[in-house]
Amino acid sequence: MTKIERVKGTRDLLPEQMAKRRYVFDRIREVFERYAFNEILTPTFEYTRLFQLRSGEEVVRQLYAFKDKGGRDVSLRPDLTSSVARLFVSQFQNAPKPVKWYYITNMFRYEEPQSGRLREFWQAGVELIGSPGIEADAEVIALMIESYLATGLKDFTVNIGDRVLLDEFARMLGVEDDIGLMRLIDKKDKLAEEEFVEALMDFGLKRDDVEKVLSLIELKGAPDEVLPKARELFKSESAAEELKKIEELFELLEAYGVRDYALIDLGIARGFDYYTSIVFEAIAPNELGIGSIGGGGRYDNLIEVFGGKPTPATGFAIGIERLIPILESRGLLPEFELRPDVFVVYIGRELEIRKKAAEVTRMLRRAGMKADYDIQGRKLRKALDYANRFGIPIVVIIGKKDLAEGRVTVRDMATGEQRLVPAEKVVEEVRGMLGR
Questions:
Q1: How many CB atoms lie within 10 A of CB 331?
Q2: DSSP code of 152?
Q3: Going edge to edge, which strands form the sheet with 65-67?
Q4: Confidence check: pLDDT of 272 > 60
């Protein structure tokens, strides 16, 4: 027979891995909901046109696009922002603002797999729609920071930039293809400085302009260090307004109690063309070859692209495939016990004994315990060996004689101590032995 392997860029997640993911999802979900965001989920695939309208060329090239059986062009979602915008335009334009939604789900992009990057991957993200003020930017950035903190991560920063300033910078350089320059600047951390300089020269910049770009991407640090230098570099009225926004943003982040986790980095462009103002990404130092572990920004024009009224919006996504390996490498995820609390075994093959085993198991489960019973019908010694192998702390044994007397045997596997107890008292006995 032909052996079929899993598709390249995908993963089989085993129970231990799923326990870790569920733990991380739960911590993040708790924070999202404390910030009054409500969970949504959109279809796994959409019309391809939806993503072509919004995404940059690179993302469109990475789409899992195909024709369905009706001949329609559809694609698996590469992220959820486009779908959220479609949903908002179709049903929620007249809803009270802001609309605050979150999601935790899988996405698909056809790109070369590497550390922290797969073709099927999960993101946890939020979209805040309908609020133009810097308060909305502060809300989502603070939420992102607190989400990471909830997972146990402490050594990270959220680096904040501004697309208005980058556009202004492109105009200062006389660059017509500002999107192309943004994409190149966005890749600066993936290139050695010599390669980056060479790419800028190939882009058509002169040596003086290259030096200006290098000066720009060095504008990184705390607001009191960066903002005075930025005001010397940017002289336009629009740039002054953006710098004032950034200053206010950090004041608000101080009120949220998370300012120490945020830095200014005016070299951040982010990969998508639709960002319009504040952009940000989270970085956690690591030796795994993982770059950004999440990012986002303001996209005030996107709702209009999909046929809606002009509506401000901002949001972010956390990369789960990037976050979890970092948490693991730092020992920040707990050890999970996947074994049952109690294992019910029976001696003999009579139907009444098997029924009693199923009944006792049901009682334990409904009392809130993780209970399993030996559906294999092993001999007693083999059943006890099985329980020992998986570290199951308590075994309930049901035999023909005990059943006739209305009793069962409860065995502590650590000490070997056994007790005969009335069958109706088995839940109480097991709970006591488990210390509950």
A1: 8
A2: T
A3: 45-47, 73-76, 65-67
A4: no
58 pLDDT tier (thresholds 50, 70, 90): low
Asked if residue 376 has pLDDT above 60, the reply is yes
Helices (H), 264-346: 302-305, 320-329
H or E segment to which residue 373 belongs: strand 371-373
Last residue of a domain, one of 284, 308, 329: 329
Q: CA-CA distance, 131 to 140, in Å (whole number)?
A: 12
Same domain, 84 and 214: yes
pLDDT at 56 over 60: no
9-18, 108-117, 121-130, 382-391: segment of lowest average pLDDT: 108-117
To the question of pTM greater than 0.85 for the whole model, the response is: yes
3-state secondary structure of 65: strand
Nearest to 222 by CA among 269, 185, 188, 260: 260
Which pair of tokens denotes residue 191? 């290139």
Give tens-digit pLDDT for 295-318: 999 999 999 999 999 999 999 999
Asked whether the beta carbons of 341 and 121 are under 8 A apart, the reply is: no
Residues 6+ away with beta carbon under 8 Å from 435: none
CA–CA distance from 98 to each of 81, 112, 253, 404 (Å)? 16, 37, 19, 66
Tokens of 174: 């006389």
Using the Cα atoms of residue 111, residue 113, residue 116 and residue 122 in order, give the sign of their dihedral: positive
Strand-pair category, 371-373 with 38-39? unpaired
Half-sphere CA count of 155, side-chain side, radius 13 A: 9
- 189: domain CATH number is 3.30.930.10
Place of tokens 């309908």: 130
Strand partners, 298: 314
Q: Cβ distance 262 to 141 under 8 Å?
A: yes
Amino acid at residue number 38: N
pLDDT at 354: 94
Domain residues for the domain of 245 are 15-329
Contacts of 286 (CB under 8 A, 6+ apart): 325, 326, 329
How many CB atoms are located within 10 Å of the residue 366 CB? 10
pLDDT for res 176: 65
Q: Is residue 8 part of a domain?
A: no
d(CA 417, CA 58): 65
Burial degree of 199 (CB within 10 A; 0-12, 13-18, 19+): middle
The closest of 160, 168, 122 to 144, measured between CA atoms, is 160
Residue of 125, 110, 113, 109 whose CA lies nearest to 42: 125
Q: Do 213 and 317 reside in the same domain of the chain?
A: yes
Q: How many domains does the chain divide into?
A: 2
Same domain as 58, residue 182: yes
